[in-house]
Recover the amino acids of this structure.
């Protein structure tokens, strides 16, 4: 067996199951889960109808490159969303089977370990806390993950200036997540300027995970994206790719429909890898994805639902926890250290006493540079409908107050 598999850590939800093992929630409370970031809003009718209307596509093998109509629809959306004058749908856009698959496969394409030694393997830089696929992708590509801790004093941005130059020299791939999971933080133009300069100096590829980009709270100020930052800084897409998805934007996680866009040379090699990898989006879902990318009405309606929840729930929780509205995404990143409990104790006791599930922040991070930056936090995914989220928040408030009684 591949010995690199032994380097993989249990997924956060496996750790959560182990934490809850043997706990029987108190009777009288229906379960409410804020643990998994899975959209629960209904799938829009226009997408459901498009899937049904496309079922004849089940008789065809899907093209890894994706259909021309889908690439054109994605290119048009990217140009409109990020203010780009042009993007080549044929060479700078590639549909993928969800951003998760693409985030993993990209590392297998990019990492070159031929000249590395066992003592100094290639490095993949990751934010910390982070989406665990980044770590697994790095390890299975034969690289070493290097974690850059988020800093609450910097609105949970990573301090890339603290990374030693000898680490940058070994770096081949940098994962960024903006809006971030779990913090909701969005990279600024100054952040991008710094990262582009480092990429120019050291030659690494930047993979910008932007799957939460369409969940934000001010219609006049959508989150800045990597391709948009490149445009604003008058540079091309050299060594830059961004990844997005319909899962959160359009409430279709089961379609596994996303895309990668950016540097044509990177995408050319990525397409070659994916052709052998056998990852191609179903023809049925390719056709339905065209409809989804071409419609913004359902996306605005979706954002309005999240805004209502966050405006209602955040003040409730702020009375008992250190928490505030994030820049974007559908998570609250709540500091629970003021309760006198660790993040794991908080999650376990909340589940036992009130049957509410939250995810301990330490499960989403690694111990690096003397600390685990997720410790003392919990991630609260406000994915259910408003009434359920409000009830869950009410229980959390009651739980926190009970700790002080």
């Amino acid at each position: 067996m591949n010995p690199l598999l032994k380097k993989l850590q249990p997924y956060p939800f496996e750790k959560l199951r182990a934490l809850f093992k043997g706990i029987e929630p108190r009777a009288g409370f229906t379960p409410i889960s804020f643990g998994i970031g899975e959209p629960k809003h209904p799938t829009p009718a226009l997408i459901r109808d498009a899937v049904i209307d496309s079922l004849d596509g089940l008789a065809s093998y899907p093209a890894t490159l994706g259909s021309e109509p889908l690439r054109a629809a994605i290119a048009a959306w990217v140009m409109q969303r990020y203010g780009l004058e042009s993007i080549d749908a044929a060479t700078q856009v590639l549909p993928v089977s969800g951003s998760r698959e693409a985030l993993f496969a990209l590392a297998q394409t990019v990492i070159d370990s031929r000249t590395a030694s066992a003592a100094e393997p290639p490095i993949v830089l990751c934010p910390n806390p982070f989406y665990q696929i980044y770590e697994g992708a790095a390890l299975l590509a034969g690289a070493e993950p290097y974690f850059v801790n988020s800093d609450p004093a910097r609105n949970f941005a990573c301090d890339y200036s603290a990374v030693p130059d000898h680490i940058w020299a070994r770096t081949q791939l940098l994962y960024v997540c903006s809006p971030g999971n779990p913090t909701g933080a969005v990279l600024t133009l100054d952040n991008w300027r710094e990262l582009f300069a480092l990429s120019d100096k050291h030659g690494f590829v930047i993979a910008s995970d932007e799957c939460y980009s369409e969940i934000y709270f001010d219609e006049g100020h959508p989150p800045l994206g990597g391709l948009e930052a490149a445009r604003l800084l008058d540079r091309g897409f050299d060594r830059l790719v961004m990844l997005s998805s319909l899962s959160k934007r359009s409430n279709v996680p089961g379609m596994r429909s996303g895309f990668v866009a950016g540097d044509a040379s990177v995408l050319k090699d990525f397409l070659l890898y994916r052709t052998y990898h056998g990852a191609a989006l179903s023809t049925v879902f390719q056709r339905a994805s065209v409809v989804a990318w071409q419609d913004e009405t359902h996306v605005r309606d979706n954002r309005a639902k999240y805004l209502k929840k966050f405006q209602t729930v955040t003040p409730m929780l702020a009375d008992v926890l250190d928490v505030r509205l994030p820049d974007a995404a559908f998570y609250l990143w709540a500091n629970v250290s003021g309760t006198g409990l660790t993040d794991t104790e908080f999650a376990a006791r909340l589940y036992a006493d009130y049957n509410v599930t939250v995810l301990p922040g330490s499960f989403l991070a690694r111990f690096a540079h003397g600390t685990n930056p997720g410790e003392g936090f919990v991630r609260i995914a406000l994915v259910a409908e408003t009434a359920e989220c409000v009830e869950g928040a009410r229980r959390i408030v009651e739980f926190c107050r009970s700790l002080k009684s």
